[in-house]
């Protein structure tokens, strides 16, 4: 027995013999060996895992809060568009560029052409314009002072011209029956401090509130519904042409042929959101930030577990020398990463839920599975992907390197 083997611990000498035996093909490595070094690390190296857990939790907090803010801004921007009836939304197709709600104008001939198209079941022309409305309290002033107060208290609103009896939806349910009436979304009613029967003033004309419905917003302004005739008159007073902005079309026609024949575009409501400039600019910027945070999460977790795995490369090599399979070591390492990620992401999402519920009244924050569970799942998957990069050290660890003369 050599000098180095005599001074080595008995278990080390046995491990070295097993390594040489396997290399010579005499002793097969046992399969399914279960090792628990990673689990012991979680107990005895709490500081470093608390540190990486805190970092992941903070990133999750940022991602979750941004996702909730993005969802809230999107709801304020497009909820009225998504609430329109029909299978497709038809907008005017410009000579160059993409369709836009702000520039779309559909005359009576275009509306009639769509109604006469084979396969079309229903066509609902809807006018959209931006304006300002004043509630009863602001409108009640007299003289010049009253007019100044009314202008100061005016609320920006989205005026929708909706025919009564249109297919039911969150937006069309607001449609009034008379030209001197309006239907208010819940946010418009709160902003105007108005209820059913109260007067409101829009573009210099007084109306009576006929109904207060659900939440509907367009370009961050609450929806106020008028009859098509009243809307056309208000749009002309505001500088528009009084023509419909969009058609909500139901049925199963040849959409491409009909759109080409009428020089319009026909798209599902979700695909039509790109025609809203505010939606593209706001959501695009926030989505880019969320994507960057996802990338940072994968990088941080991957870097941590890469360094940590390299630090215990010798221990991993010894375990391989003792017969642990690569599969068991990989399961152990990924299990460790999964435990850290689940605890940290869970803590981050819990804080997001608390802050979101508190900020819901002051910020446009949407608290839903899409803004909490979906980002959490994405964070976990990307974190595991980052941790998987560190597994090269596990699968390529050489037992003889760890069992050399320095051990």
UniProtKB/TrEMBL annotation:
Biased composition of type Basic residues is found at: 13-26
Name a Pfam family for this protein.
MacB_PCD
Transmembrane segments annotated in the record for this chain: 49-69, 286-310, 338-360, 372-391
* Keyword Repressor in annotation: no
Q: How does it sit in the membrane?
A: Multi-pass membrane protein
Which keywords does the record carry?
Cell membrane, Membrane, Transmembrane, Transmembrane helix, Transport
Family classification: Belongs to the ABC-4 integral membrane protein family.
Where would I find the MacB-like periplasmic core domain in this sequence? 52-254
Q: Which InterPro entries match?
A: ABC-4/HrtB_transporter, ABC3_permease_C, MacB_PCD
Recorded source organism is Clavibacter sepedonicus (Clavibacter michiganensis subsp. sepedonicus)
- Domain ABC3 transporter permease C-terminal, chain residue ranges per copy: 288-399
Question: What is the name of the protein in this document?
Answer: ABC transport integral membrane protein
| Keyword flag Ligase | no
Location in the cell: Cell membrane
